[in-house]
C-alpha cells in the first residue's frame, strides 16, 4: 500500500518569505505525485503534478515541486508567499489506480 | 464547461437514518472517485469507478456504505443507518480516465452531519 506523510499540519510564513511544504511518500512502484490546494469553503484544485520526465515541476500561482526519488520526497515550494496563498495543501500519490492523500498542511501567511 | 457537482451541499440527519449523496461528474469523464474528509484528517478513499469495470470498493469503511454509478455518469453514495462518526465532508472527483496520471477534478463536497 502507498502512504503519504506531510510534515507539519500548520505552517506560518511572512508575506514575501519562502514557502516550503514537505511531502514524503512510500510507494512500491514509480509513483504519480500531486499537490492540491483547498481554499476556504472551496473544493480541491490541482496545483501541479509529476508523472514522468523532468523532476522539477512547475504549477500554478508560482508554485513548484521537485520529485526526489532517492529521498522519496515531493516538497512544494514558492519563492515569495502572498496573502492569497493561505489555504490547505494536500500532497497525493497514485500507484496508477487509487489515490492516497496526506493529512494536509494549513498555510498561514502573516502580513 | 461545467465542473463536478454534488448535492446536497449540506445534509443534517438523525442517527440511524439512511442518506443518499449525489455526484454529477464532468461529461465524458470515465473515472469517478468518492472520498471522505474528516476534520483534521486527509482525504480517505472510499470507492473508485472506472468505465464499465467493477468498482474498487476497498476503501468503504463498513457494509453500511455503498455506491453505484448509473450509465457511467451520475453516482450515488448511500450510507445506511448513519452513525455520528459518519459526520464528514464527502467529496467526489472525476477524471478523464483512471490510471493515476490524469488530473482529478473535485466537486465542492457534501457536508454530512449526523445528530
Characterization of the model:
The complex is a heterodimer of chains A (111) and B (115). Chain A is mostly beta strands. Chain A has strands at residues 3-5, 10-14, 19-21, 24-26, 32-38, 44-50, 56-58, 64-68, 73-78, 87-94, 99-101, 105-110. In chain A, the strands form three sheets. In chain A, strands 2, 5, 6, 10, 11 and 12 form a six-stranded mixed sheet that branches. A four-stranded antiparallel sheet of chain A has the order 3-9-8-7, with no helix packed on it. Chain A starts with a strand and ends with a strand. With 115 residues, chain B is mainly β. In chain B, the strands form two sheets. In chain B, strands 2, 4, 5, 8, 9 and 10 form a six-stranded mixed sheet that branches. In chain B, a hairpin with a 5-residue loop joins β4 (31-37) and β5. In chain B, 33% of the residues are buried. The model of chain B has no long low-confidence stretch (mean pLDDT 92). Chains A and B meet through β5, β6, β10 and β11 of A and β5 of B.
Spell out the helices and strands of chain A N to C: EEEEEEEEEEEE
- Got a strand count of chain A? 12
Return the string of H and E elements of chain B: EEEEEEEEEE
User: Can you give the mean pLDDT of chain A?
Assistant: 91
Approximate helicity band of chain B: under 10%
Overall morphology of chain A? globular
Q: Supply the number of helical segments of chain A.
A: 0
Alpha-carbon distance between the two ends of chain A: 41 Å
Q: What is the subunit arrangement here?
A: heterodimer
Summarize the topology:
The complex is a heterodimer of chains A (111) and B (115).
Chain A: E1 3-5, E2 10-14, E3 19-21, E4 24-26, E5 32-38, E6 44-50, E7 56-58, E8 64-68, E9 73-78, E10 87-94, E11 99-101, E12 105-110
Chain B: E1 5-7, E2 10-13, E3 19-24, E4 31-37, E5 43-50, E6 65-69, E7 75-79, E8 88-95, E9 105-106, E10 110-114
Parallel strand pairs in B: 2-10
Antiparallel strand pairs in B: 1-3, 3-7, 4-5, 4-8, 6-7, 8-9, 8-10
Amino acid at each position: 500500500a502507498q502512504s503519504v506523510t506531510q510534515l507539519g499540519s500548520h505552517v506560518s510564513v511572512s508575506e514575501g518569505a519562502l514557502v516550503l511544504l514537505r511531502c514524503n511518500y512510500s510507494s512500491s512502484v514509480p509513483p504519480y505525485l500531486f499537490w492540491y490546494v483547498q481554499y476556504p469553503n472551496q473544493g480541491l484544485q490541482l496545483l501541479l503534478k509529476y508523472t514522468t520526465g523532468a523532476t522539477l515541476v512547475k504549477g500554478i500561482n508560482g508554485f513548484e515541486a521537485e520529485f526526489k526519488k532517492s529521498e522519496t520526497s515531493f516538497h512544494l515550494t514558492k519563492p515569495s508567499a502572498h496573502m492569497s496563498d493561505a489555504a490547505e495543501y494536500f500532497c497525493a500519490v497514485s500507484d496508477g489506480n487509487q489515490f492516497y492523500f496526506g493529512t494536509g498542511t494549513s498555510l498561514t501567511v502573516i502580513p | 464547461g461545467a465542473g463536478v457537482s454534488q448535492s446536497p451541499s449540506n445534509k443534517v440527519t438523525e442517527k440511524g437514518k439512511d442518506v443518499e449523496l449525489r455526484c454529477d461528474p464532468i461529461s465524458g469523464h470515465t473515472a469517478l472517485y468518492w472520498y471522505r474528509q474528516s476534520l483534521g484528517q486527509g482525504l480517505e478513499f472510499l470507492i473508485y469507478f472506472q468505465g464499465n469495470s467493477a468498482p474498487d470498493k476497498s476503501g468503504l469503511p463498513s457494509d453500511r456504505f455503498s455506491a453505484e454509478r448509473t450509465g457511467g455518469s451520475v453516482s450515488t453514495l448511500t450510507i445506511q443507518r448513519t452513525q455520528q462518526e459518519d459526520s464528514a465532508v464527502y467529496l467526489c472527483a472525476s477524471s478523464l480516465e483512471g490510471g493515476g496520471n490524469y488530473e482529478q477534478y473535485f466537486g465542492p463536497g457534501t457536508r454530512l452531519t449526523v445528530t
